[in-house]
Amino acid sequence: MHASDLKTAFKKIFGLAFALILVMSISGPIIQQASGISVDTTTARSNETSTNNVLGDTPTRVTWEGVVDEGEQVTQVTLQMPEGSQFTNDSTMRPTVLDGTRRLDVGNTTNIDQHNSTATVTFDQPLTQGQRLRIELYRTSLPNVDGDVYITGSYTTADGQTHELAQSPGITITRASTEERISNWLGEQSWVQAWNSNTVLRLFLNPQLVVTSIPTVAYGWLLSMALVLIGFPLAVPLGLLGSLMKVSKRRLFNGLASIYTGLVRGTPLFLQIYIAFFGLPLMGVNMNQYVLAVLVLAFNSGAYMTEIIRAGIQSIPRGQEEAARSLGMNHFQTTFSVIIPETVRRIVPTMTNEFILLYKDTSLLAAVGVMELMLYSRGIVAVTGNMTPYMVAAVFYLIVTLPLTHVATKFEKRLAIADGNVAPTPKKKHHLFGKKNATKKNDEPRLPLGSKDELAQDAKSQAGKDTEIAVEREEGLHD
Amino acid sequence: MIRHKHSQYDAGPAAHPSDSIVSIQHLKKSFGDLEVLRDVNIEVKKGHVTVVLGPSGSGKSTMLRCINLLEEPSGGHILVEGKDITEPGINVNKLREHVGMVFQNFNLFPHLTAKKNVMLAQVKVLKRSKEEAEQVAMEQLEKVGLANRADYTPAQLSGGQQQRVAIARALAMHPHVMLFDEPTSALDPELVRDVLDVLRKLADTGMTMIVVTHEMQFARDVSNHVVFMENGLVVEEGTPSEVFDHPKSQRTKDFLGHLD
Lengths: 479, 260
Prior knowledge:
A: 479 residues; elongated; B: alpha/beta; disordered N terminus
């Protein structure tokens, strides 16, 4: 027990001493060569659009700087990029020699070794003491890791000796996401390069930017959808209330509703947004900007819905109300069991269009800094100076509006057929919709559907008595 | 074949006005300057079928709509089951429960199936349970021969079928009087018969009916009383044979001559 403890302790000490000797023997030259070139700067330019991050596995520009130490004459410098770095055919390097602030014109040859990830510069005349060498590496990729990486390498002095370079200061890398890597991969494809060589295509439909902007724009899309999906349902009861007030015979209700729709529909939503977002804080009312955004949208849309529902209610033939009332139903029962349900059916297309409009109008909230689809895409455009994110945003608007427009049109057609305003096309299942009305319309010479009430008949006949009687005669013949 | 009139089976109505279920006295109605009803007097006996004839614009539909106050009379009186409905403070909804009406354009509720059309007012107005309302609805639809169309929406039904549903809807309220406002005028000729058959059957049950129509054969066969109106006045009235076979006024003769 005791003996074995002692034995392990000895083993450790021995091992440590051995390791120390080993390290010293390796690091010895480095310490010694540190006086050859003092490496003081390594930086990589940010290659992410919206942040200052340096992404791994993404082309970037790396700058390395070192100063020749006292008594040294350097003829060649080779930079060894960290493991996982990549040079491509597009990668270039540019060495610059500075004496103080003066740029020296020193003849040189450069060579990039893609396989070993090294970049070498050979000078026609050796660099001397105090001269600063800056090497810029263009379109090189650093390893896709999270953390610091270092550039190492070697240099050759005038006497032909090669020494290790001191390790550079670290470059902090952020791991590139999938879409960034797809974008990088795209950037190397020849078709993408050909595509991007066209200015218009590059500025408006850059494939790489399409890929990289999708996640951000999609997030904005979700926010816009949330705004409209909460704002729209909130506007519906407002519109219902407004419309009932509008069709009401009471002047006060009617007047209030008219003021509401008049003001809201008579001014731009843009203005309303400004008033709400700048006016309320002035009054000391501060709330979450998304909540306020939803409220403004609902308030605005409610006015349009008021008119939509009002028009819907007034489009219900008078006969419907008369039928309900003649069954003993009171005004309230008639309104909520007959008129409103039928109105709903009729206004579905218009309400769908209102949804589309409201969805598009969420973009106006960008003006007051509510982060949504528009503002997120604008953020990328501001950084890249490329219109592609706007095109992506357009697609995100369209994936909602186009199908909905289609649906609204279908509803409209179905409604028109059900109302007998359009002869149903024979091949479709029109027996479900238009049969009675279609046949009646065509064959029935007297009066069309619904809304013509007896008053109209009675009044009209004073003028057109002769024709009316002629028609009656025809009908009488049926007996 | 000439059908029997129901009045031939039952005791038959007595002639004095107290037997009137609907009594229209000096009824006037104007729309602005337009005087549609000038002085209309009609007595409708319980269990009778009264047919109102006349050219368009004669005011017959307006007269009918005054009986359940869809139009408010400008003057005169209407007594329904002895009660003057032109008096202020009358419960209009209560009145309408007992006066069923069928419209020229059916006016079915398009968002509801045939059965639900018949059920709605039963539940809302008579406060019947859903089950009871449904049972009544099915009975009434059965009577008009459309029990098998109970779950169709109006758009899926022909005009004649819609009108029969509308009749079932009115009958489900168990009215005391039924008003028919040109019930077959909006129908294709081939669909008219089904509706008239329903009306005939209804007359046979002893329902009091006031029918504005142009169906002369129906008027002859089914009615007990025929009223001929023109320019807001009753020009002539009497039994079908009196009016059709021996019209007194020249205007009636002209009108019937046009038709025959």
